[in-house]
Design goal:
By secondary structure, the protein is an all-beta fold. It contains no helices and 22 strands. The strands form 4 sheets. It has an 8-stranded mixed β-sheet with strand order 10-11-12-13-17-16-15-14, with no helix packed on it. The model has no long low-confidence stretch (mean pLDDT about 90).
């Protein structure tokens, strides 16, 4: 890690065996954290601490902003894939490969497990500004996209009906107004997109799409930072991280290639929690 890395806003990208860290928005390589085994989803709290799901060891590992040494290791429940931090409480939710969702109070200790879900496998998750948790994954039919909500103070996940024709589950993030949900492969239209949904009760109404230009296919956990969407991409012969205008999409405005190997997740950690 470069000596002054912690003084910068940083972009963290999970890379199976490593997490690579870049200055943001410049994109210069600042450091690498190694020792992972199938690092996938990432989330960040108000203190700028970054948590990474390490599927191979069934853990969620926490790192202070700009630090290489972890300060916390949470035991996963059912092989955690995605994670998200509740902006109101600091609770950490993890969407698990066994279809359950685990919530760790204040991102510590043992989780409360929600096992009554519509998922065969849960992939990605994201809290909105009110503390409602949204999770995507697949149902009994592995080709069946499912979106569900765990309302604030709720006791179970309820399926949310999606009007759009979705591909494989991609990232889930609240953009400040709408729920952004990606697809990790081209949807039926043939154009990779991130959908924007207005959530009303148990229905998700499509209000717009963010088309991802060249290279944007196979996006897993994207990250929205203000007017920029950051998309890690694994392609046939290369791995990249693309920046797109949000919510306009279109042609990528930046591409990072250094230090990448099968990138899956991305988050931005702001210096001093700005």
């Amino acid at each position: 890690m470069l000596p002054n890395a912690a003084s910068h806003d940083l972009l963290y990208v999970s890379n199976l065996k490593t997490v690579t860290i870049y200055s943001y928005p410049r994109g210069s390589l600042e450091g690498t954290i190694d020792g992972f085994y199938d690092a996938q989803g990432e989330c960040v709290d108000k203190k700028a601490d970054v948590f990474v799901t390490n599927v191979g060891t069934n853990q969620i590992l926490g790192y202070a902003h700009g630090a290489r040494k972890r300060f916390r290791a949470l035991a996963g429940h059912g092989l955690p894939e995605g994670c998200s931090i509740d902006p109101l409480t600091g609770d950490l939710a993890a969407s698990d490969s066994d279809g359950t969702v685990a919530v760790y109070k204040d991102a510590r200790g043992n989780p409360k497990v929600y096992d009554r879900t519509p998922f065969k496998q849960a992939f990605w998750c994201g809290y909105d500004d009110d503390g409602n948790l949204f999770v995507d994954g697949v149902g009994d039919d592995s080709a069946n996209f499912v979106l569900a909500e765990l309302p604030k103070n709720g006791h179970r996940l309820e399926q949310v009906m999606v009007g759009a024709s979705m591909g494989a589950p991609g990232g889930v993030q609240w953009d400040g107004k709408y729920l952004a949900v990606g697809t990790s492969g081209p949807p039926p239209s043939g154009t990779p997109v991130v959908y924007r949904f207005k959530i009303t009760g148990r229905h998700a109404k499509e209000v717009g799409t963010v088309p991802l230009g060249y290279g944007g296919s196979n996006v897993r956990q994207f990250w929205i930072q203000n007017a920029t969407l950051i998309a890690p991409v694994v392609q046939l012969l290369e791995s990249d991280v693309f920046f797109y205008k949000y919510p306009a999409g279109g042609k990528a405005t930046k591409k990072i290639t250094a230090g990448l190997d099968a990138p899956a997740g991305a988050v931005v950690s702001l210096a001093q929690g700005r």
